[in-house]
Write a structure and sequence with these properties.
The complex is a heterotrimer of chains A (155), B (597) and C (390). By secondary structure, chain A is α+β, with helices and mostly antiparallel strands. Chain A has helices at residues 3-15, 22-33, 38-48, 52-61, 81-85, 88-99, 141-153, and strands spanning 73-78, 112-117, 129-131, 134-136. Chain A is built from seven helices and four strands; from the N terminus they run ααααβααβββα. A four-stranded mixed beta sheet of chain A has the order 2-1-3-4, covered by helices on one side. With 597 residues, chain B is an alpha/beta fold. Among the domains of chain B are: 5-92, Ubiquitin-like (UB roll), CATH 3.10.20; 97-212, Alpha-Beta Plaits, CATH 3.30.70.20; 216-275 and 337-409, Rossmann fold. The longest helix of chain B has 24 residues, at 273-296. Chain C folds into three domains: 21-217, NADH-ubiquinone oxidoreductase 51kDa subunit (Rossmann fold, 3-Layer(aba) Sandwich); 227-300, Ubiquitin-like (UB roll), CATH 3.10.20.600; 312-389, Up-down Bundle (de novo design (two linked rop proteins)), CATH 1.20.1440.230. In chain C, 44% of the residues lie in helices and 14% in strands. Chain C has helices spanning 21-29, 34-44, 56-65, 86-93, 95-109, 126-142, 163-170, 199-211, 213-217, 250-257, 305-319, 325-343, 350-364, 368-372, 374-383, 385-389; strands at residues 72-77, 113-118, 148-153, 194-198, 227-234, 240-245, 262-267, 273-276, 295-300. In chain C, strand 7 and strand 8 (273-276) form a beta hairpin. In chain C, helix 1 (21-29) packs across helix 8 (199-211) and helix 12 (325-343) runs antiparallel to helix 13 (350-364). The radius of gyration of chain C is 21 Å and the shape is globular. Classes of the chains: A alpha+beta (155), B alpha/beta (597), C alpha/beta (390). Chains in contact: A-B, A-C, B-C. Chain A binds chain C through residues 18-24, 26-27, 30, 57-58, 61-65, 80-82, 84-85, 117-126, 130, 133-135, and chain C through 79-85, 87-88, 119-124, 126, 152-158, 169-176, 190, 231-235, 239-241, 270, 295, 297, 303, 307-308, 311-312, 315, 318-319, 321.
């Protein structure tokens, strides 16, 4: 069994095989692997006895359940109104330059994917970004770079 | 138990309907037609196109008539100013993301969006075009179905069809918002996913987003080729539905006119798939008897029961994908279409003195999966592609119109001989339960020497539109060579629509069924409701087609497959015996294991 | 015209954090008759704090009256409205008050399971919340209340804040809103009778059980009882979270929070209304005026209202579930439409066509998302027409 299959069988064990457990299972895979690979979706479909198109259709509805490959770490910069007003564009530009990728892309070493997100719920402390599940509010281009740098060197 | 009656007014007219009735249905009782797009009588309610919105007095929002149950004292207005304005807007919105190249569209003239746009005189396109360039390239990977996203209105009728009626869900809804689309798994081409090619989605698509692969030009080209001898076979279910394509009400039998028009179009011989349906019964009936003997007498564990029919290529691809471990339960018999092709390019080619390579076999089928089937590599027993082209009932209707034939005034004509002889048993292949009934008529008689013990040979328990039908027949007073079957209660099941097939297969897989023989047809109602049949479809329409089929059966002079003179002759002159060596070469096949996901 | 107007008054009900208070409220409350609790809630005038404003007591009553052995309580923590961030703060600071509200509701309606549907963007809250839920469930066991709270996560879909979309999501489907009726009180999660309340609503329910309806009722106006947590952002020197008495006129709010150059306030988030300076005096924040789930976004005169509307429309284009025609295509048409007017590809009069379209979206869309896109569109286009065109 591949590591993905092991992971999925553990998640199925934990959450059950009913349709109601689909979201927690998909979330569990994304937690580990950052996106849902074709194999992962097929395995889930098999475990829950539903069609692969159904798994894909459900997953792709949700912004955080990516169905295209992502890096080990996903950076999401909030792009909605308050953060826009607080210059999220500068944050994005700084990160694009530092990581040498555009929004939507992943670094060559597959470490970081840079994305934008709709309102992250920090409108009073924008601009804000998530690195994986961790939140970083009140960014400046400098602080954003520092955070990413520290993140890179923290492992 | 009688239901509560609910009183309401629609456009100021009082009406009393059962509790739970929708506004749409209640309006219909008063003969007010409310336009719909996402609604379909065979499917659950979606309420997503919003074209059926109506005004309910006192409500802040309009209500989707298809999704809103009536309530006591309700006052509904179906044509108020805001209703009409909204409806027009919705049609305009749909057109703004729709590729309106109607003149080039296969559904030109039969598109529900087009007729709504016409009815509401939506002429000036004020809105911006939202057509996505990537949607302009249709998916033509499947030999059966063309998926053109630029025509899609996202009503999800196809998605519900694939899930609810067929239990396949090859099509789903993907992404959200402006990226939402009707998609296969990872948006792969249709020929790479679990699509069975059944075409039920086509039957329910309101626009040209899902259509069959059109082979009309291929057939015309064959007819124009002076070196080709073009024979055509017509499936049982075509003759009771073709009329709908040509302006007749559902339920008309047009066998003779169909034959006449095919001859006028220029086919060298007009032959009948009914012949090979009868041949199928001989092969499949004897296969069943062999399997019963091997299992009951020889205790051969490699032989599987229940045996399952193999006429329906959508069903075959379904089992290959979803239950490949049950492939051995499938009868090895080819479908009537492919038996016909194999015999046509061997036995028949000799008879008419035409080289097989010069012969073109065209099938007229109620089915889109047949287009896939004739392309299967197994289907070249004659050394050539046994069936060259498949046209659906709809395509034949179009071809007749192209040929300028006035269908209504045609004098009926008969099929050519040989391979044009039919029986009632073959005709009923077109309805769910028909193969079972035909097989029992023959097998029972082979085993006992007597006709099946049903009035008029009508085996009623396997008829009708129930999703899964069961019957059992006690076999008594057998011929000596079938002594092992004396007293056996033969249990059979019939399922139509792949969602029902799935249920039956699950019962076979987990060992809870006690069937000996199962008939499965991929399409609801059997072939009469096939993916290549006239659009629209509904239970009422399918019921009328079924009536016509059983009428045709009752009117046939011969009603049992083993009495078909062409069938008797081919065994005497060519095949020898059912399940014999030659049969195995020409008339039987094997199955693949395909991915379930 | 007489208006019941209030001064701006800061209140501290939601975040008041006395250790052990929630647990004691729960113990006390479940000794009471459920019908009395409902009567108190109805009497208090508490309306849903998510934005829609349905009377909470009635919602509980309808669900209680359903004859079904299986019922659910769901805490809607899918706070996604741009400009709203108060639920995050409530979950962070007073989770026990939320849990208590859920359990009281479960006790009242006869449910055995409660869920918190937490938006995926707030996953960082999970660690602490899971711990608090475990402790809370242990406490429920101790006091022999047959009820359990569980957490479910969202995964980035604004529309899942719509209650029926949230149920679909919890059931493992695409978060597409359902046809209504049936309403959640009859058929909600798993098609069983369900109370679904916003985070803040549940905390208020807890606190009304604690302090009684009278004290709550004293705050606010006839139509808008009590106080409300506001999320203040935009051009303000003091952005943040404030609990304020309902029913204040907007100018008082702007005096307190504006930067002296406020030209407009967007009340109720992207799906709410834009109010301009000249309307500050006669706009009441509350159900009799402009209701809000909490979002108050302040714009000063340096802001382009075109950009703001553009942002909102982009948001709706992406976050529409996509199933119904008016919303899926309507949002795109509005966005493309203002772009075309801006570029001069469509005449200014095209804005009138678009406004007519929003009227259709308002009455013909399947759920609140599509129905409310016209709110920001019309209020911005009407008040800042020049900015949209030039």
């Amino acid at each position: 069994m591949s590591t993905t299959e092991v992971l999925i069988s553990e998640l199925v064990e934990k959450h059950g095989r009913t349709r109601n457990s689909l979201m927690p299972i998909l979330q569990g895979i994304v937690q580990q692997e950052k996106f849902l690979s074709e194999d992962a979706m097929v395995s889930v479909a098999r475990e829950l006895n539903i069609s692969a198109a159904d798994v894909f259709g459900t997953a792709s509805f949700y912004t955080f359940l990516d169905t295209v490959p992502r890096g080990k770490n996903v950076i999401r910069v909030c792009k909605t109104i308050s953060c826009h007003m607080k210059n999220k564009d500068e944050i994005i530009r700084a990160l694009e330059n530092a990581l040498k990728i555009k929004v939507g892309e992943t670094t060559h070493d597959k470490e970081y994917t840079l994305l934008t997100a709709n309102c992250l719920g920090w409108c009073h402390k924008g601009p804000v970004m998530l690195i994986n599940d961790e939140v970083y509010p009140e960014l400046t281009p400098e602080s954003a770079l520092k955070i990413v740098n520290e993140h890179m060197h923290s492992k | 138990m009688s239901k509560y009656m609910v009183n309401l007014k629609i456009n100021n007219m009082p009406v009393s309907v059962e509790e739970g009735t929708t506004i749409l249905e209640a309006a219909r009782q008063l003969n007010f037609k409310i336009p719909t797009l996402c609604n379909h009588p065979d499917l659950t309610v979606a309420g997503n196109c919003r074209v059926c919105v109506v005004e309910v007095k006192g409500a802040r929002q309009l209500s989707a008539a298809c999704a809103t149950p009536v309530s006591e004292g309700m006052e509904v207005f179906t044509n108020s100013e805001q209703v009409r304005t909204s409806r027009k807007h919705i049609i305009e919105l749909l057109l703004s993301e729709h590729n309106s190249d109607c003149t080039k569209c296969q559904k030109n003239g039969s598109c529900e969006l087009q007729s709504l746009a016409f009815e509401y005189r939506v002429g000036d396109h004020v809105l911006m075009s939202l057509l996505k360039p990537e949607d302009l390239i249709p998916d033509i990977s499947s030999p059966s179905i063309v998926k053109d996203n630029s025509k899609c209105i996202h009503c999800q009728r196809c998605v519900r069809t694939c899930a609810e009626l067929q239990g396949v869900s090859a099509l789903g809804v993907a992404f959200k918002g402006n990226h939402q689309s009707i998609s296969t798994f990872l948006n792969k081409p249709l020929n790479e996913v679990v699509c069975t090619n059944c075409g039920q989605c086509i039957n329910r698509c309101p626009t040209g987003a899902l259509t069959e692969r059109n082979n009309i030009e291929d057939v015309w080209n064959a007819l124009y080729d002076p070196n080709k001898f073009v024979v055509v076979q017509t499936a049982p279910a075509v003759r009771i539905a073709l009329g709908e394509e040509l302006g007749l009400e559902p339920g008309h039998r047009v066998t003779g006119k169909m034959v006449a028009s095919l001859r006028k179009i220029g086919f060298n011989k007009v032959l009948d798939t009914d012949f090979s349906a009868d041949l199928t019964i001989m092969e499949e009936g004897f296969e069943l008897l062999n399997r019963l003997r091997k299992v009951l007498v020889e205790k051969d564990e490699t032989v599987k029961l229940p045996m399952m029919t193999s006429c329906s290529p959508g069903w075959i691809k379904f089992i290959e994908h979803i239950f490949p471990n049950l492939n051995d339960h499938l009868s090895t018999c080819k479908s009537p279409q492919q038996m016909f092709g194999a015999v046509a390019k061997t036995y028949y080619a000799d008879k008419v003195n035409v080289k097989a390579q010069d012969m073109v076999v065209v099938s007229i089928m109620p089915c889109t999966a047949k287009k896939f089937e004739c392309d299967r590599p197994e289907m070249r027993s004659s050394g050539f592609k046994d069936v060259d082209y498949v046209l659906t009932t709809r395509e034949l209707g179009l071809m007749i119109r192209q040929a300028g034939i006035d269908f209504a005034s045609l004098e009926p004509e008969g099929y050519d001989s040989i391979l044009g002889e039919s029986t009632g048993a073959a005709v009923i292949f077109g309805a769910t339960g028909g193969v079972m009934e035909a097989a029992l008529r023959t097998a029972y008689e082979v085993v006992t020497g007597r006709e099946v013990p049903f009035t008029n040979l009508d085996i009623k328990p396997v008829r009708g539109m129930e999703g899964v039908k069961e019957a059992s027949i006690k076999i008594k007073n057998v011929k000596p060579e079938f002594a092992h079957l004396e007293g056996v209660e033969l249990n059979v099941a019939v399922a139509h629509g792949l969602a029902n097939a799935r249920k039956v297969m699950e019962s076979v897989q987990n060992g809870t069924s006690n069937y000996h023989f199962i008939e499965i047809m991929a399409c609801p109602g059997g072939c009469l409701g096939g993916g290549g049949q006239p659009i629209p479809t509904s239970k009422e329409i399918r019921d009328k087609r079924a009536e016509a089929i059983y009428e045709e059966d009752l009117n046939m002079p011969i009603r049992k497959s083993h009495e078909n003179p062409d069938v008797v002759a081919i065994y005497e002159e060519f095949l020898g015996e059912p399940n014999g060596h030659k049969s195995h070469d020409l008339l039987h096949t094997h199955y693949k294991v395909r991915n379930r996901y | 015209m007489t208006m019941e107007t209030k001064k701006l008054k800061k209140v501290d009900i939601i975040f008041e954090n006395i250790p052990g208070l929630s647990y004691s409220i729960l113990e006390k409350t479940i000794k009471r008759n459920p019908d009395d609790i409902i009567l108190d809630l109805i009497d208090s005038g508490l309306k849903g704090r998510g934005g829609a404003g349905f009377p909470t007591g009635l919602k509980w009553k309808f669900t209680k009256n359903e004859d079904n052995p299986v019922k659910y309580v769901i805490c809607n923590a899918d706070e996604g409205e741009p400009g709203t961030f108060k639920d995050r703060e409530i979950i962070e600071r007073v989770p026990d008050k939320i849990l208590t509200g859920i359990a009281i509701c479960g006790y009242v309606i006869g449910a055995k399971e409660g869920y918190i549907y937490l938006r995926g963007e707030y996953n960082f809250l999970l660690k602490n919340l899971v711990k608090r839920v475990e402790e809370f469930n242990a406490f429920l066991k101790k006091i022999h209340l047959d009820f359990k709270v569980m957490i479910r996560s969202g995964s980035g879909a604004y529309v899942c804040g719509e209650e029926s979309a949230l149920f679909e999501s919890m059931e493992g489907y695409r978060g597409e809103p359902r046809n209504k009726p049936p309403y959640p009180t009859v058929a909600g999660y798993n098609w069983k009778p369900t109370v679904i309340n916003n985070v803040e609503t549940l905390v208020f329910a807890t606190m009304i059980c604690h302090m009684g309806p009278e004290k709550f009722k004293k705050l606010g106006t006839t139509d808008s009882r009590g106080s409300k947590v506001f999320s203040v952002s935009g051009d303000t020197p003091i952005p943040g979270i404030y609990e304020l008495e309902l029913g204040m006129p907007l100018h008082r709010f702007v005096e307190e929070f504006g930067d002296g150059d406020t030209k407009a306030v967007q009340i109720g988030g992207a799906s709410g209304f834009c109010v301009t300076r000249k309307k500050f005096n006669d706009t009441i924040i509350g159900f009799e005026g402009i209701p809000t789930g909490g979002s108050m976004m302040i714009f000063n005169s340096s802001r382009s209202m075109y950009n703001i509307l553009h942002d909102y429309l982009e948001f709706f284009c992406e976050e529409s579930c996509g199933q119904c025609t008016p919303c899926r295509i309507g949002c795109q048409q509005l966005l493309k439409g203002i772009e075309a007017v801006k570029r001069g590809e469509r005449p200014p009069s095209y804005l009138e066509e678009l406004k007519k379209l929003t009227a259709t979206m308002k009455i013909a869309s399947k759920c609140g998302l599509g129905q409310s896109v016209g709110n920001p569109f019309n209020s911005i286009v009407d008040n800042f027409r020049e900015e949209i065109i030039y």
